[in-house]
Design brief:
Layout (H helix, E strand, L loop, with lengths): L2 H4 L45 H30 L11 H19 L4 H5 L2 E3 L10 H16 L17 H6 L3 E3 L3
Antiparallel strand pairs: 1-2
Helix pairs in contact: 2-3, 3-5
């Protein structure tokens, strides 16, 4: 008998243990997205919209995470070959970095509703009827919007500057803005 078989059911919703993954109990329809019980009702007033400074911090944290993963891959490749990669050999790393960016962002938005950088900056998507997590199409469009802002060196964000908390390309394309939340 395993420890999971011996686990006692939780008495009240407030007694939920902290888990990293949104696990389901009992019979569940896996074709439907999960609804987060902790998400506020979208009809209620929510936290304030996220400004550009926390968004820049989240982008920097995500970029640092991607940079570390990319550097680990480059160093591992160099170790496997027994020589340090040359500058011309690093060109393969740019498409890999784009692919790595996609797989570090989109699954995190689908599973947890935020990336590593968003969690560090206390940002989350505005809650919908499905909670704070994004569906795959919204997550992919958010990634593309962020990629557009980075590719234009921030020029796409000029439309955001017209008001505090204005929608960025990622907000407009995904249909879900970010807000500052308390951790």
């Amino acid at each position: 008998m395993s420890r999971l078989d011996e686990a006692q059911p939780l008495a009240e919703p407030g007694d939920r243990p902290m888990v990293d993954l949104p696990l389901r109990h009992g019979d569940a329809d896996f074709s439907l997205p999960l609804r987060s019980e902790d998400a506020p009702d979208p009809a209620e007033g929510s936290a304030r919209p996220a400004g550009l400074a926390p968004r820049a911090g989240a982008l920097a944290a995500d970029a640092a995470t991607l940079g570390l993963l990319w550097a680990a891959a480059v160093l591992s490749a160099g170790l496997a070959r027994g020589e340090v990669p040359r500058a011309a050999g690093l060109l393969w790393g740019l498409p890999f970095l784009l692919l790595l960016s996609f797989f570090a962002t989109v699954p995190a938005l689908i599973l947890f509703g935020k990336t590593v950088g968003m969690a560090a900056a206390d940002l989350a998507p505005i809650a919908s009827s499905l909670g704070r997590r994004l569906d795959p199409a919204e997550a992919t469009r958010r990634w593309l919007g962020t990629l557009a802002a980075v590719a234009t060196l921030g020029l796409a964000l000029l439309f955001t500057l017209r008001g505090s908390g204005g929608p960025t390309p990622a907000d407009r394309w995904s249909g879900r803005a970010l807000e500052e939340v308390e951790s």
